[in-house]
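Action item from last meeting closed. Structure (228 res):
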C-alpha cells in the first residue's frame, strides 16, 4: 500500500491538502512540528484510520532522520513538501539569521527530507514542492516588500526541483514545483483572494495531472507554467 506524505499539515494549505487526500481515500502521513498538533489535525486523526500523524522539524537533521525511520519501509507515491516559513523582514532590518532560517526550512529541509526518503519512492512517484510566485526572477513581484529571505529560499527550492527531476528521471519519479497563489492562511493573510479549500482542490487536481513532461517545471496551481 502506497502513501501520500504532506509536511506542515497542522494548519494552512497543508491541512487543506490533508483533508483533500483523506476525502479521496488515500493513506496519508501528515507531519506536524514536534509538540505542535492543531485541534483540527487531531480531529481528522480521530475520524480517519487512514491518517498517520508523525512529528517532523525541517530545521533539525535528527528529526528528518527519525521521520524517515518511522516510515519503516512504507512506500511513497506522493510527497508534498508543503511546510514553509517566512519572516517578512524589511530592508534595513535584515539579519543573517533570518536569511538562514528561511533557507534551512524552505530549501535545505525539503532537500534533506527527499534524500532521507529516497529508497521509499516507488517508480512513478511524484514529489511536489510548494513554491511561490515571489521566487520568480522574471516576475519579481513586489520588490518593495519585505520578502527577500523568503523569495531567495523558494528560488533555491525551484533549483532543487530542476536538479532532482534530472537525478530521479531514470526512476520515472516526477519532481515539480507548484505555486499555490495568494491564499488565506497565517502566511498569506486574510486579505488573500483564494480560500484554503479552493487552493487545495486546485493543487490536488494539478498533482493528479502531473506527468513526466512536467518534471523539473514550475507551475501555477492550475498547472499553467510559471516563469522561473
Ligand atoms: N499562503 C500563501 O499565500 C502562499 C503563497 C505562496 C506560497 N505559499 C507556500 O505554501 C506552503 C504552505 O503555506 P501556508 O500559507 O499554508 O503557511 P502557514 O499557514 O504559515 O503554515 C506553514 C506550515 O509549515 C509548518 N512549518 C513551519 N516551519 C516548519 C519546520 N521547521 N518544520 C516543519 N514544519 C514547519 C508549520 O508548522 P506549525 O503549525 O508547527 O508552525 C505550518 O504547518 C508554504 O511552503 C508557503 O511558502 C503560501
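Sequence:
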Amino acid at each position: 500500500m502506497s502513501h501520500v506524505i504532506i509536511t506542515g499539515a497542522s494548519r494552512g494549505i497543508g491541512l487543506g491538502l490533508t483533508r483533500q487526500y483523506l476525502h479521496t481515500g488515500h493513506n496519508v502521513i501528515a507531519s506536524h512540528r514536534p509538540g505542535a498538533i492543531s485541534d483540527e489535525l487531531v480531529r481528522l486523526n480521530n475520524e480517519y484510520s487512514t491518517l498517520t500523524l508523525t512529528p517532523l522539524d525541517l530545521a533539525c537533521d535528527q528529526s528528518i532522520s527519525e521521520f524517515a525511520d518511522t516510515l519503516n519501509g512504507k512506500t511513497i507515491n506522493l510527497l508534498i513538501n508543503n511546510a514553509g516559513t517566512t519572516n517578512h523582514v524589511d530592508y534595513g532590518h535584515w539579519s543573517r539569521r533570518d536569511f538562514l532560517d528561511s533557507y534551512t526550512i524552505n530549501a535545505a529541509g525539503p532537500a534533506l527530507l527527499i534524500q532521507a526518503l529516497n529508497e521509499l519512492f516507488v517508480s512513478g512517484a511524484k514529489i511536489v514542492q510548494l513554491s511561490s510566485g515571489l521566487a520568480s526572477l522574471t516576475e519579481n513581484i513586489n520588490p518593495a516588500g519585505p520578502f527577500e529571505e523568503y523569495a531567495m529560499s523558494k528560488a533555491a527550492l525551484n533549483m532543487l526541483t530542476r536538479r532532482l527531476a534530472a537525478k530521479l528521471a531514470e526512476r520515472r519519479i516526477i519532481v515539480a514545483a507548484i505555486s499555490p497563489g495568494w491564499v488565506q492562511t497565517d502566511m498569506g493573510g486574510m486579505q488573500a483572494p483564494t480560500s484554503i479549500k479552493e487552493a487545495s482542490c486546485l493543487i490536488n487536481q494539478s498533482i493528479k495531472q502531473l506527468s513526466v513532461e512536467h518534471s523539473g517545471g514550475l507551475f501555477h496551481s492550475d498547472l499553467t507554467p510559471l516563469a522561473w
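Note appended to the action item: The CA atoms of residues 29 and 125 lie 15 Å apart.
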